[in-house]
């Protein structure tokens, strides 16, 4: 099964709800989540979208997307520092 456009939009809204503001990072996370959800559906076709999403989100740990956001922010800061000197 493949995700619908509506489900993909829900994933973007989900990332925004969890404080991911940059579109490029949202897109990476949506891609990751959608691949995971589709993989779950191969194993359990009757699993709901919402349940599959929660399973995938739990894989990010207690702090959710915050670790990913912080790592990206640090990488951007390092790039900016290299380019300013």
Description:
This protein is mostly helical and 85 residues long. 74% of the residues lie in helices and 0% in strands. The protein has helices at residues 5-17, 23-43, 49-58, 66-84. The longest helix has 21 residues, at 23-43. The protein starts with a helix and ends with a helix.
Task: Name its key features.
single chain; 4 helices; elongated
Q: Helical content, roughly? A: over 70%
Supply the helix-strand structural class.
mainly alpha
Q: CA-to-CA gap between the ends?
A: 50 Å
Number of helices: 4
What general form does the structure show? elongated
Q: Which blocks of ≥5 consecutive residues have pLDDT under 50?
A: none
Largest sheet: none
* Rounded Rg: 15 Å
Q: How big a fraction of the residues is strand?
A: under 5%
Mean pLDDT: 92
Q: Secondary-structure element order, as H and E?
A: HHHH
